[in-house]
Amino acid sequence: MDNRRLFTTMMLFLAVFFFLQIADPFGLRKPKPDANLEQGLDVAEDAPRRHPTNNPRQFFTLGSLDTAGSDCLLVTLDSRGAGVRRIELVQRDAKGRFLTREVENKSGYLGYLELQADATGCLIGALPSGSPLTTAVAQGDAPLPVRVGDRLLSIDQQPIRSDFDLQNFLGQTLPGQAVTVQLARRSGAAAPIPATTAADAALSENSQAGDAATNGDAAEAAAETPAETTAETPAMAAGWSEYTVQATLMDRPKQMLGPEYRNLSEKVSDQEYPGTLDFSLQDARLAGWQELDLAMQQDNWEGRQYVDADGRDCVEFTYRLPRAVYRRLLKTSEALTAVLAPEADVPGAAEPAGARDGAVVVVKRFRLPRVAAEQRHDPAVAGYHVEMEVDLYNQTDEALDVAYRLGGPVATSIEGWWYQIKLHGGFWKIGYSAGARDVVTSTAARPYQFYGRAEIDTEVDKNGVFTVFPRDSSAEERTVRYAAVDTLYFASALLPQATTPTGLKPASTPAASDSTTAQSNTAQSDTAQPDTAQPDAVVPDALAAGAATPDEAAPQAAAGPAPYVCYSGFAGPVGAKLEGRDTMKHDLSFRLYNTVSLPPSPAAGEPDAAEAEDAAPSVSATPGYRQTFHLFAGPKRPELLSTYALDDTVSFGWFGMFSLPLLWLLHALYYLIGNYALAIILLTVVVRLLMMPISRKAVINAQMMQALAPEMKKIKEKYPENLEKQGLAQRELFRRFKYNPFSGCLIVFLQLPIFVGLYRGLSVDFELRDQPLLPGMSWCSNMAGPDQLWNWSSYLPTFIAGETGWLGPYFNLLPILTIVLFIAQQKIFMPPPTDEQQALMQKMMSYMMIFMGFLFFKVPAGLCIYFITSSIWGLIERAVIPKPQLSQDILDSIARDGDLATSNAVVAKPLPSAGKTQLDDKSRQELRERERQRQRRLKDKQKE
């Protein structure tokens, strides 16, 4: 195939795309206003309050880094907000290597320790099972094992006073390197108590005692974080004893989710940055659906870890809604609520010590799926999700109508965002562009819906919200199959599970409850500080009175599990929004809202004020509401996505029908060869061989154009000032030699779908990630990214060599070779110019090739290998196909019969003798007459 024509066509497509992106002539990017968006109340009038929980901050882990483990995920959970803190992909292959490693940071790893810095060191807040510190070797009288709550002092005599210091040190190390770690332990600290049994999973009024015992002195250590205590004093330091261990660093598993705010230019605290799967109750009777208690997101829940009835590790968090909030919840008058709220909810006022059970108890349980030993190396195993179970207990003797908000995944990995080539998942949305993070949803009515970051940001900036599940839509359009944050190679998706537990009302049918369910719309977006008290929307009078929407009026069928129908859902930016080109990497997520009617507790009654401090009802055995969610967090391997019905999150564009079979062939070649670089080369050769009949015609057509170039030049010299005669003569020349100048373009368009399909397939194929060009080489060790020969970011300006710069932080060799071959093809295939206009066009095309070099400078190495192989094949094909020889008989016939044909000339027919044609008598006479007139004019000029 003529790569020059292919990339000229691609450049035209790019020009059209950028025109649509900037000019937006069809109004594609015009935000669509939400018909349900209404003005909220004054924030200061009904701002939610915060009741401190007085619980210590704790971190829990599920999963293991052990090489013999069967877990696919390692999850760190945080008692602050009771959410997911971090997720790492830890599945290993049969050789014990991580299936999905970090490709941007290949230094040594100690495990995610959740360090809490103070004046003399860092307290270890989390210690994953199987991490290097858990298998460390003692030096001297070290009191092994290392525990949560110990203080990390130094590594190889380098002081460690923050997580930043730790990462800087590890950045200079390699996996397998042994390091000497100095730690300290509080004198007299008790050993951790083993996890409790499954029988302890039931809620009871004594659960707090079990929580404090979990992880030994982890609660005490976590309480010493800088946000909660002052710096360590010398007297306190004297109560610690130091010890030393030797640990061997390991490879880094891929971080899928994590606290990204630490990398932002502005300091953002934990309280301002929401966690993944954060959950909060809201007052559905108040306008704006305000938070009942901000402590649900900003304070620490009671936490404990135990083994459930299935033998799986389970982390459970409990939050107890204060009875002062419950009393405000019972007030139906908005004016009365505004008056009583400041009296009932005094900031800083905690619940009495004896009233621990509260009015409403929220329990969140987290588990990992069990993976069979024989499937632990299977990349498509259903082990890439976290199970979250939410229970609501009503501890009063009155039915309660509340709402809740559930946050989606936060800080999904955007690995390689500065060089990614990602298409917008909307098939016809050519005016939109995809971002580093986008939102994808699936409902019963719409199996797949893609929302690009740019369109979300535009509408949020203009209207404050971006609706993904409109509240006034049908139940099918709010039946959530999944909602996901989508990146090029990874996805984190929330998958609500259809459940109808015995004795529980389904979450999706609030109107079918025994008591009237308060309903409202939420219009709160995830703005720069998502946890501020900003009302969502005014409740329409009909819904505030308890009326159900028409599609929700029918009662839920008694048999079978009920699908999850949310009330509404919104997407938007999370945390600090970045400016300029850095907006590509700001966080993006979504939130789901729903209404719940909690039946009264049969054995509970609200204690009056006199006995509130002495007695509190125990949590009932059966929750009033239960809903289970699965959080998928994993790579976009097609077989893994099929396991979770997330196949649509991989988009190949308009030529996907060609991409899939070509990728299948690529993987088959890799299975035989074992190297993706060679597999790409062989795949390109196979495709070019299959396209040989078409490409051969294109080459012959280009060679014929070069052969005819001298004759075309003679025609222009013969008729220098008559363009009409030039055109007629050129057409006659093309007709005599059976050359069609448009056939080359037709051949290019026939080849375009196949080659663009291959291009798109290589652009999104996850299997190219972390695959080296040559095993053992640090250069070009990731075929899904640039080859990164040399980091030149410290030598060039940021606008050139920054991550958002024109060229990126690395000098890449393969794109240079690609452009050199493109220019060589252009020089060899391009016919010599016949006039100044053609010479100017050829110069412009040369400059265009250089401009394409800038566009291709950050292209993944796998694509460069494809282009290089295809270009070399084109050069070889051009060399082996013989050049056409112009028939001298035809040239003599043209000179004899004249090179001009009239507009009504009959098309020439080839004679049996090669190279001769026959014109009708009328045309011959006309041509001869014109020639005689021309000769007479020449003689007259000579006489003058």
Describe what this molecule looks like in 3D.
The protein has 944 residues and is of the alpha+beta class. 29% of the residues lie in helices and 18% in strands. The protein is elongated, with a radius of gyration of 35 Å. The model is unreliable at 18-46, 192-236, 261-267, 332-356, 501-559, 604-620 and 900-919 (pLDDT under 50).
Key phrases:
9-stranded antiparallel β-sheet, 22 helices
Low-confidence blocks of residues: 18-46, 192-236, 261-267, 332-356, 501-559, 604-620, 900-919
The main β sheet shows up as: 9 strands, antiparallel
- Please tell me the overall pLDDT: 74
Shape, please? elongated
In short:
By secondary structure, the protein is an alpha+beta fold.
Secondary-structure blueprint:
Blueprint: H1 3-23, E1 59-62, E2 73-78, E3 83-89, E4 115-117, E5 122-124, E6 137-139, E7 151-155, E8 158-159, H2 163-170, E9 178-186, H3 207-213, H4 218-222, H5 234-237, E10 240-248, E11 254-257, E12 279-283, E13 290-291, H6 295-298, E14 302-307, E15 313-321, H7 323-329, H8 334-344, E16 360-367, E17 385-394, E18 400-407, E19 438-443, E20 449-451, H9 453-463, E21 466-469, E22 480-486, E23 490-496, H10 541-544, E24 568-573, E25 588-598, E26 625-635, H11 638-643, H12 656-673, H13 676-690, H14 692-718, H15 723-736, H16 743-764, E27 790-791, H17 798-801, E28 810-811, H18 814-829, H19 836-855, H20 861-880, H21 888-897, E29 909-910, E30 917-918, H22 921-943
Antiparallel strand pairs: 1-2, 2-3, 3-11, 4-5, 5-7, 6-10, 7-8, 7-9, 9-10, 12-13, 12-18, 14-15, 15-16, 16-17, 17-26, 18-25, 19-20, 19-22, 21-24, 22-23, 23-26, 24-25, 27-28, 29-30
Helix pairs in contact: 7-8, 12-13, 12-16, 13-20, 14-15, 14-16, 18-19, 18-20
